[in-house]
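Narrative of activities, Objective 1.

The group set out to show that a structural description can be obtained from nothing but a protein's sequence at a throughput compatible with the screening campaign. Below is one input-output pair from the validation batch, recorded exactly as produced.
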Amino acid sequence: MPIPDALISELRQRADIVGVIGQYVQLRQRGKNFVGLCPFHPEKTPSFNVSPSLGIYKCFGCGKSGDVFTFLKEYAGMNFAEAVRHVASQVGISVPDEPSHSGQALEHRRRVIAALEAACELFQMHAQHSADAQNFFRERMVPAEIIERFRLGYAPGRWDATLEALQQRGFSLEILVEAGLVVRREDGTAYDRFRHRVMFPIANVFGTIIGFGGRYLGDDPAQPKYINSPQTALYDKSSVLYALDRARHAILRQQHVLIVEGYMDALALHSIGLEHTVATSGTALTEQHVEVLRRFTDRIVLVFDGDHAGRDAAHRALTLALRNGIGVEVILLPEGDDPDSLVRKRGADATKALLERRLSPVEFLITWSKARADWSDPHAMTTEIRSLAKILASTPDELYRELLLRECSDRVGVRRELLLWSLPPAPKTRRTQRALNVAPPPPEPLPSAAPVPILPEELELLRAVLFSRTVAAVLFDDYLFEPATLLSPVAEHLLRSLAEHHRCHRGDEPLGAAIPTLPLDDHARQLAEWIIFSSEE
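Output recorded for this entry:
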């Protein structure tokens, strides 16, 4: 049966819309509202408004608006039923199951997710009884609390241990192949993808397992040290960051994210309290990764391995970050060290102290360049400085660009004008443009006047009806007020729609909460949203 309207209304009222949206967008309070940079379009000045009292949001820059369900659908990629169930799980309300004839695709997806969850439980059980896994955890000094929190496991060395166990639990071969847990041979038989490996469950931002990484414990040189789940409908390594589900709240608190390369690096930093750490896990940092992280912060800190490969990877990641308009710093680890080995050798305090020594993009690029080119040769130095300036100039934030070029000029001893002379025109890309260590601009003020002509008395009447169900009941039930008495056609249309909704949907919820779902024309919707958000400053 469909989800009852009354249940949807109750969930909408009980949902903490600021908490839900705040998992993806940095919000700060302004009066009774919360504001932030819009997640739906690039902007410099915050124009995204959230009303906790009515449970709705509105961006006065791009026009996006809706309630908590709309946001989860449009931003988190959920369908309506998934959004309802997600909110219900947060407020402790159960939702009736969907009819089988209308939810086959959703049920199939659930079976794949269930198979991944069952595999995780299986791997955890095997790890408890595997001497090889326990030896690995002991040698790598992985705390028991981290093993439990991140649900680390072990896949046995047998070719069909996972396949056999999960089929006994009722999962079909088709589901297990789709989940990336087994590989089907050409003759139709299948075998486990992960064998004799420590297993790292990979979750989406909500904590749902969507794939695995596996670290080989054997001595066969033909076996890769690490493998990941293949590309599936759930798992795309170019957009998934390991431990983001565990790190997202800490990232919002710290206002930056530490990015490392491997699973063990992420676990090591989490184990010493640096919970704002994520890992790229077997792939270079991508534009998709940056866009995912931009939901939580505008500043990333690269903590890659201290060898040449790690520094080259940091160079590529920094270049990509600048090009995509996000603030970036780099931490240079000692030669031969990675975050995991650093924690094991030096301990928590020394590691944290080292991670405070961050390099600006200019400092890192100069250091990286001097390690590969002879700066005593004027020709080589000229080439390197031009290359460095071109990278710095790629950021779409003009202010950040200017600050970086000034720093570059000071550090290399070349006049800023000469640097600018050799640069291409500023990029036209419009992205979120907030500079490192520069205070964000003040929120975009709401228009001071209503978007349509309206009498002050009509404005106050609409304001009262939008915010108070009691006023609406008195007006529409007791006095049988006729919207046609209003002089403004837009105000009349809005009030008539509110009256109709009031009569058809009884309850205590303020009528303003229904604005995202009412059949309003553009002028009436703009008027309602302006009244709501200008009233709550």
